[in-house]
Amino acid sequence: MFNYWVLDLRPNTLLFYPAHFKNKFMSNNNIKNNWYQDFYTKFYFTYFHQKKDDVFQTKKEVDFICKILKLPSGAKILDLACGQGRHTLELALQNFDITGVDFNQQALGVARAKAQKNNLPIKFFPYDIRSLPFKNEFDAIICMYTSFGYFINEKENIKVLKGVAQSLKADGLFLLDLPNKYWTIHKIPRKTYRKFKNTSILESRSFDSVKKIFHNRITLTNGKNRIEKISTYLRLYDLKEIKNKLAGSGLKCLKSFGNYNIKINFETKKSPRMIVLAKKNN
Ligand SMILES: C[S@@+](CC[C@H](N)C(=O)[O-])C[C@H]1O[C@@H](n2cnc3c(N)ncnc32)[C@H](O)[C@@H]1O
Description:
It is a single chain. With 282 residues, this protein is of the alpha/beta class. The protein has two domains: 5-35 and 182-235, no CATH class; 50-180 and 239-280, Rossmann fold, CATH 3.40.50.150. Helices cover 30% and strands 31% of the residues. The chain has eight helices and 13 strands. A seven-stranded mixed sheet has the order 5-4-3-6-7-13-12, with helices on both faces. β8 and β9 (199-208) form a beta hairpin. α3 (55-69) crosses α4. The termini are far apart.
């Protein structure tokens, strides 16, 4: 079906992909401000979530969350952008009073079904993370696995942080799990090609250092050569910048970690993640 393949050896790139992809994925340049609506409802849970479905990985992340937050049984936690409820369900099993919000009704449907099956009294709401209706309600809020920084207009990202501060009780804790900017720019290959069942997935990544936005152009094609082009955009922050954004929203950074392990402190050049623990300023 493919005439020839391309071997791309540019820095940060080592990749073989069918040549007919070349022009198709390069031409996807217009920023779509609400990219996350289509991406998360149509593509993410089918093509990009597999690793995160790993039960062992989720348990490791929840163990980390519990060790960091050190909350008593029954404490009220909000899982912001909870998706299919990986952390929400595990935290409910640990006897926390947990609420999950996500705008993605399909993902919430999966989460609700799992909660029902396990008899877990979790509240799920289909809210947008920019307009949380809660006031002084939670002992802690978690925002796991790169669920922040989706909005091209930075004011929208700040709305999320302000909503978090408003939703927390006095002294409430916020755990924000982000990718490390340095790692994302320097260690993640510029291009990757993989097959998932019948679909070929080519991802081409770049970083706009002025807007501080990481752009991933994704091309999906199946055996019949049908093409879907999607772009994702993620605002990347370094530690100083996210501390300032948190402070400006009423949240004080207490500590930062480089991975899902309380012994691993954040280090710019070494850490894959930048996980920040903050506390509401009273
Ligand atoms: C990378 S996934 C992470 C899901 C979950 N936290 C996990 O670790 O499995 C990001 C989630 O953010 C949700 N999301 C994206 N934009 C949103 C918005 N504006 N309001 C609410 N949820 C949003 C998506 O539906 C998706 O479930």
